[in-house]
Design a protein that fits this description.
single chain, 263 residues, alpha/beta, Rossmann fold, 6-stranded mixed beta sheet, 3-stranded antiparallel beta sheet
């Protein structure tokens, strides 16, 4: 179970105007602005749930995922993931979670994908029999057989994302965080990734938290929606709650953003 209670996170950002004179001035005196990425965020996610975590750019989605995965420490509030505090029990925590950031890679760029998988096997201390079983299962389900010997830099975006998802699941995590996993993918690759995530949830009971701007991903995968805007949870309900008007999902969500003034 995942629980966040009254979590806040702020960033101090340096600001200055354009121009050489302003740059010199900033060497001696800097102006800062406080950005409240998360402001009193609370929610609970049960084991095996697939949750769509949506909101506009800058709403606080990625900050939430980074806190839940132990990368960031909140300013205040409590966070528990299966009884662990992520940022205090990081070594134990990372063995139970998988994270896919659509715009960041965990594969080594210039070595064959299989070498990256072998390195991850050692990092996560995966026993040989379980690693081989996971590798065979993921290779078949994600159609990776022709990709494993290629360096990550030579793969298309869709091919690399399939490998990224496999890399995040080699150690069989109970929880999977997906941050824009289908960004830039073509229609065929998107369908393949969606089908795989559904299968992973059904077969292994994997808890999935999905952040994305692609509402078709949300529609295909998530039964529960959490809407965040300006660092606050604005709505927590089902897909049917959002689609009350019965219209196109993208138009419905855009109207929802306008209603909450979070465009």
């Amino acid at each position: 179970m995942i629980t966040m209670e009254h979590v806040c996170k702020s960033y101090k950002i340096a600001k200055r105007n354009a121009g050489f004179g302003e740059a010199v001035k900033a060497l001696f005196h800097r102006d800062y602005e406080i950005i409240h990425a998360l402001n009193d965020v609370s929610f609970t996610i049960r084991d095996g749930e697939m949750v769509g975590y949506i909101g506009p750019n800058g709403a606080g989605k990625s900050s939430t995922i980074k806190i839940l995965s132990g990368i960031l420490t909140p300013d205040c509030g409590t966070v528990l993931v299966d009884g662990r505090i992520p940022y205090k029990n990081r070594i134990k925590h990372v063995k139970e979670i998988g994270v896919v950031f659509g715009q960041r890679s965990q594969l080594w760029w210039d070595v064959p994908v299989i070498d990256s998988f072998e390195l991850l096997k050692d990092i996560y201390s995966i026993p040989d029999p379980r690693y081989q079983q996971s590798l065979e299962e993921l290779t078949e389900l994600l159609n990776l057989a022709e990709l494993l010997r290629s360096p990550a830099r030579q793969l298309s975006l869709g091919q690399r994302m399939r490998c990224e998802i496999a890399a995040s699941l080699l150690h069989r995590p109970r929880i999977l965080f997906l941050d824009e996993p289908t960004i830039g993918l073509d229609a065929v690759s998107k369908l393949a990734v969606r089908d795989f995530i559904l299968n992973q949830n059904k077969t292994h009971g994997t808890t999935v938290i999905l952040t994305t701007h692609d509402m078709q991903d949300i529609e295909a995968l998530a039964s529960r929606i959490i809407l965040i805007g300006k660092g606050r949870i604005l709505m927590d309900g089902t897909l049917d709650d959002i689609k009350k008007g019965g219209g196109n999902i993208d138009e419905t969500v855009a109207e929802l953003y306008r209603a909450y003034d979070i465009q």
